[in-house]
Amino acid sequence: MKKSKRLSPASTSLFQAILQIKNLPEARKFFRDLLSQQEIIEFSNRWKAAQMLDKKISFEKIQAATGMSPNTVARINKW
Q1: From the record, what ranges are coiled-coil (predicted)?
Q2: Would you say residue 2 has pLDDT above 60?
Q3: Which of 7, 25, 31, 49 is deepest in the core (most CB within 10 A)?
Q4: Under a CB-based contact definition with an 8 Å cutoff, are residues 45 and 67 in contact?
Q5: Burial degree of 73 (CB within 10 A; 0-12, 13-18, 19+)
Q6: Which is more confidently placed, 6 or 40?
Q7: Do 18 and 30 meet the contact criterion of CB atoms below 8 Å apart?
Q8: How far apart are the C-alpha atoms of 73 and 52, rounded to whole Å?
């Protein structure tokens, strides 16, 4: 069965809450309340990989810089 691409109400609410963040200290507090330290690190690495992909950096260099698997980098590249 194909997964729906529609966002759940909870996801929509989360994204709306993120849009209300006004500054870096508020963002830190928001994400620390929601995520563990390890989850923040993993989320940050995904963001780093997305930025590197945008700069056309090779998958191999991204994997070396982030420690991500080829599958994870490929999944991020779909954005």
Answers
A1: none
A2: no
A3: 49
A4: yes
A5: buried
A6: 40
A7: yes
A8: 10
